[in-house]
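Thread: Newbie trying to understand structure tokens

Hi all, I'm a second-year student working on a class project, and my supervisor (Dr. K.) asked me to get a predicted structure for one chain before our next meeting. I've only ever worked with sequences, so writing a 3D structure as a token string is new to me. If someone could post the tokens and maybe explain what I'm looking at, I'd be very grateful. Here's the chain:
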Amino acid sequence: MSRLIATVFGVGYLRPAPGTWGSLAALPLFYGLHLLGGIVATLIGVIAVGVVGYWATKQMTQGSDNHDPSEIVIDEVLGQWIALLPVSYGAVFADADILALWPGWVVGFAAFRLFDIWKPWLVGRADRRDDAVGVMLDDAFAGVFAAIVVFIAAALYHIPLIMAAQ
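---
Reply by user tm_fold:
Sure, no problem. This is what the structure looks like when written as tokens:
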């Protein structure tokens, strides 16, 4: 069971770039969560994936020298979902179809992948922990940074529209 969760039902075995495949697999799952319960469901989903992902990662890496094998992509799901939280909130706030906020999806995906690969500041520090907490935490931090980028991009897009409407 832990292997299925950690690899997101085998997505982590796709090559090349299993992290990118994991991030892509996170998108329809996030969409489904949002449809089920909006921002509340996506927040609960983030917490659940964080807890279950940590457990699965710890189980899968127990007794191994490699604490972050490339096939573990549940951490990408966590980070990608965090990156998309502003999109879910924006859709609920505007009473809009979440797919209509597609630029937020694109920015969230691209920004998360950038921070996950680049590993600046807290992302890199967490990655160097070399344990299950670090596996999950570096992607959570990358997701937070990406969510900030999504929020700023949305504000930069919407401020001129609001100003023009006044």
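A couple of things are worth pointing out once you decode it. The first helix runs from residue 2 to 6. The mean pLDDT is 96. Feel free to ask follow-ups in this thread.
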